[in-house]
Specification:
Layout lengths: L2 H6 L6 H13 L4 H15 L2 H11 L5 H26 L14 H5 L5 H15 L2 H13 L4 H27 L2
Helix pairs in contact: 2-9, 3-4, 3-5, 3-7, 3-9, 5-7, 7-8, 7-9
């Protein structure tokens, strides 16, 4: 199980995604932990089981158990936060004075990995989930933590391709063209 299996399973109409994910994995500006954590977190954000299974299987060769759990934790906490903060933003300040009341301890602990890496994964998931506030907040934090613009851009590119791969796999399973 691997990224290669995932690529080989993509339909012909997703050839651009197949080529791009290969390039991103090969030529990324990210550290190995940042790269594979971003792949895991964004695969989880697609909510497509086969995408998650393939990416996590190969990521186990590149990530410690702690880093793997942190990447999955980033995906799940942002699954909650992106819904909450996007909704609050859509309500144009009507509830900004109210406490969120949501537990987010994993963010403070960074899931046991470097803060910059956890925030990078949270940012990439926020891109997939379409939360402008979370995306901006996590991008500012990773930049303050010393992550270069090129690395931020790689994480966003990975998120976009993984989002497309999730859609292509879902379509292929549903339509079987």
């Amino acid at each position: 199980m691997s990224i290669e299996n995932l690529k080989n399973g993509l339909p012909e109409y997703a050839k651009d995604l197949k080529l791009t994910i290969g390039t991103l994995v090969r030529d990324s500006q990210l550290t190995e932990q940042q790269l594979w954590g971003t792949l895991v977190a964004t695969a989880a954000a697609t909510r497509v089981e086969s995408v998650i299974v393939e990416v996590v299987a190969e990521a186990r060769e590149h990530l410690s158990d702690t880093a793997l759990q942190a990447a999955l934790g980033a995906a799940t906490i942002m699954g909650m936060n992106n819904v909450f903060y996007r909704a609050r933003h859509f309500l144009h300040g009507a509830y900004d004075d109210m406490r969120a009341g949501l537990r987010m301890n994993i963010i403070g602990r960074s899931g046991g990995v470097e803060k910059a890496d956890f925030e990078l994964w949270s940012m990439a998931v926020s891109a997939i989930n379409g939360c402008e506030q979370c995306l901006g907040s996590h991008e500012a934090t990773v930049r303050q933590e010393g992550i270069a613009r090129e690395q931020v851009w790689d994480a966003i590119r990975i998120a976009s391709v993984m989002g497309g791969i999730g859609q292509a796999v879902t379509l292929a399973e549903a339509v079987e063209v």
